[in-house]
Specification:
This protein is of the alpha+beta class. Helices cover 32% and strands 23% of the residues.
């Protein structure tokens, strides 16, 4: 690692000030991406601002929403009885992130701020039509994701909580990389009275995306057979040592069918 200053503010305003008064300062949430980046010297911040003492963890459930503090760990989401009852698919998704060490350090806010194209939470936020609340505004899921590792967050803006509407049914299915446990393809399907939303992670070069053709078919008929014959173009999908774009295109259909059946 390079040398850097370290701050651990206890108030949100102080954390925002530390980040906005120094263009090279970086926020530290759970550190599951940021610490390896520092160790590999891929980033050279002048200051690291630790967000762990801001009181941003916790889960609040109402009949229509689940709100999760940004510093809540994946393990806490997975083990929450309230989340398991309200949106079991969300708890199940959290239980599949990384291994138990990662789940007990990584945070939902850190994951969404980083927006890794293979991360799981972006698919849940997008499929459920959730919102991201920051120190200065609320951002709808459809406006939040703007490409690989890119979000609508402005410099120094801190996620404080994430809110998910409670669907009628939902499920998440993930084809994991056996080493990293990241999604080679992950599919989150959510059914609401107004229709069905389907979000795909791990597959596209631009990160998480909604599958419009699947959504239209499933909104008309929420059955596995409804998407039979619908294919996903491979043009903009990832191709790497783990899977070709064509293979990922096939997996999208397979994992979506599994998600429908699970829901």
């Amino acid at each position: 690692m390079y040398d850097f200053a370290y701050e651990k503010p206890t108030a949100l305003a102080a954390a925002v000030s530390a980040l906005t008064t120094d263009d090279e300062a970086k926020a530290l949430a759970g550190g599951q991406t940021f610490i390896p980046v520092l160790k590999q010297r891929l980033n050279k911040p002048t200051k690291v601002v630790d967000l762990s003492s801001l009181g941003l963890s916790g889960i609040t459930v109402t009949p229509s929403t689940v709100t999760i503090g940004a510093m809540t760990t994946h393990g806490d989401v997975a083990n929450s009885v309230d989340v398991q009852k309200a949106i079991p698919a969300l708890a199940n998704l959290a239980s599949m992130i990384g291994d138990w060490q990662v789940r007990h350090r990584g945070t939902i806010g850190g994951s969404l701020a980083n927006n890794d194209p293979s991360a799981c939470y972006p698919s849940a936020l997008l499929a459920l039509g959730g919102t991201v609340t920051t120190d200065r505004r609320t951002i709808a899921a459809d406006d939040y994701f703007q490409g690989m590792f890119t979000t609508a967050l402005e410099p120094g803006e801190i996620i404080t909580s994430v809110t998910f509407p409670v669907p009628e049914r939902a499920a998440y299915q993930k084809f994991r990389n056996p080493a990293s446990r990241y999604a080679m393809v992950g599919v989150f399907v959510a059914k609401f009275a107004s229709g069905v939303r389907v979000a795909i992670t791990g597959a596209a070069q631009g990160g998480v995306f909604r599958h419009a053709a699947f959504e239209a078919a499933l909104s008309a008929n929420f059955l596995v057979d409804a998407i039979a014959g619908i294919t996903t173009p491979a043009d903009d999908l990832n191709s790497d040592i783990h899977a070709s774009a064509a293979y990922r295109a096939h997996l999208i259909g397979v994992m979506t069918k599994r998600a429908i059946a699970a829901a």
